């Protein structure tokens, strides 16, 4: 039995009933693929359903305000995906008259669409013979063929892409691609896979050479940078607070946050009070300063760890324009801020 026949046979039994599996509409496939980047299905599914319910067509998504898209995306992280999602929706709606490109090369030109997403859409929607290559596929191919080339290198991508293309079922690329991704996700999982029930155990190099735990090989990323964030949570006697929109480039671009002071190291009450003497917003204002969390809240991102304190600033009148505290949840904020809002229970 060939690799494809084994995969599709397994898939016919273990296929998950997911909404984007019941359509070849490129809008829905594109939407699901963008949401599921760096995201598990169980986390991404409610977001997919929310986007489909709020924006059933690419035209409706294009017409939405970016702030609305970011708010609906809140909690998924990697917010550049949401910004790219919105930008691509506008491009497809207004420049391509609502029609997605019908091939891999055309899809690659869309903002936020890389090799994997273009391959998935092209094969599933347009039956193009282009193999998908995501973390699940890397893992299966690396183990099955016993390849120790690091997957997060240029050479690794070329090696595994060529191999994925070689074993692709040219008669049914859509089912093959979905089968191999599901197999990697559910059977050939990252840790402690049950190889005793795997249909490939007789021919899998990693299983027969006891290399399952060692493959795939991935070069270690650089050590995350530590940053020290101090958020000022203003609370006026009239029940208002201050939110600022992040305009500069970065993962939180166009999201809202409390006024931020970044320090070189963790700071304590007396030191922070001294620092606030020259802080423009509090110049000459009478206020009460209370530290919400004695221990830093560490928010881990892929490239940096944010050691965070929230400082409550009670005062009679805000030093600048603010918003009613009751409206805080109307704004798109990073998960770090969202969790504080929930924990503080305004």
From TrEMBL:
SMART domains: ENDO3c (SM00478), FES (SM00525). One of its GO terms (biological process) is base-excision repair. Adenine glycosylase active on G-A mispairs. MutY also corrects error-prone DNA synthesis past GO lesions which are due to the oxidatively damaged form of guanine: 7,8-dihydro-8-oxoguanine (8-oxo-dGTP). This is Adenine DNA glycosylase. Its cofactor is [4Fe-4S] cluster. It comes from the Bacteria. One of its GO terms (molecular function) is 4 iron, 4 sulfur cluster binding. Binds 1 [4Fe-4S] cluster. It catalyses: Hydrolyzes free adenine bases from 7,8-dihydro-8-oxoguanine:adenine mismatched double-stranded DNA, leaving an apurinic site. NCBIfam families: mutY (TIGR01084). InterPro entries: A/G_AdeGlyc_MutY, DNA_glycosylase, Endonuclease3_FeS-loop_motif, HhH-GPD_domain, HhH_base_excis_C, HhH_motif, MIG/MutY, MutY_C. Belongs to the Nth/MutY family. It is an enzyme of class 3 (hydrolase). Residues 35-186 form the HhH-GPD domain. Keywords: 4Fe-4S, DNA damage, DNA repair, Glycosidase, Hydrolase, Iron, Iron-sulfur, Metal-binding. Its EC number is 3.2.2.31.
């Amino acid at each position: 039995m060939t690799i494809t026949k084994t995969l599709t046979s397994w898939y016919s039994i273990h296929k998950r009933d997911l909404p984007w599996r019941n359509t070849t509409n490129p809008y829905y496939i594109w939407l699901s693929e963008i949401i599921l980047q760096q995201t598990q299905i169980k986390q991404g599914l409610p977001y997919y359903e929310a986007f489909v319910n709020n924006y059933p067509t690419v035209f409706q998504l294009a017409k939405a305000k970016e702030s609305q898209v970011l708010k609906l995306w809140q909690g998924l992280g990697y917010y550049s995906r949401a910004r790219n999602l919105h930008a691509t929706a506008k491009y497809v709606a207004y420049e391509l008259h609502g029609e997605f490109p019908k091939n891999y090369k055309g899809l690659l030109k869309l903002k936020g669409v890389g090799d994997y997403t273009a391959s998935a859409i092209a094969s599933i929607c347009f039956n193009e013979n282009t193999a998908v290559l995501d973390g699940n596929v890397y893992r299966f191919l690396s183990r099955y063929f016993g390849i120790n080339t690091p997957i997060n290198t240029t050479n690794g991508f070329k090696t595994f892409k060529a191999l994925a293309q070689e074993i692709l079922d040219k008669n049914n690329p859509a089912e093959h691609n979905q089968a191999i991704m599901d197999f990697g996700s559910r059977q050939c999982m990252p840790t402690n896979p049950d190889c005793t029930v795997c249909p490939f155990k007789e021919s899998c190099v990693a299983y027969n050479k006891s290399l399952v735990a060692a493959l795939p090989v991935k070069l270690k990323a650089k050590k995350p940078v530590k940053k020290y964030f101090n958020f000022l949570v203003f609370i006026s006697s009239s029940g208002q607070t201050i939110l600022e929109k992040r305009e500069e480039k970065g993962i939180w671009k166009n999201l809202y946050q409390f006024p931020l002071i970044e320090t070189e190291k963790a700071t304590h009450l007396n030191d922070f009070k001294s620092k606030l003497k020259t802080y423009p917003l509090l110049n000459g204002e009478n206020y009460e300063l209370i530290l919400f969390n004695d221990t830093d809240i560490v928010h881990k991102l892929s490239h940096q760890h944010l050691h965070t304190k929230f400082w409550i600033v009670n005062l009679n009148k805000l030093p600048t324009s603010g918003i009613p505290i009751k409206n805080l949840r109307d704004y798109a904020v990073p998960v770090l801020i969202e969790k504080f809002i929930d924990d503080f229970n305004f």
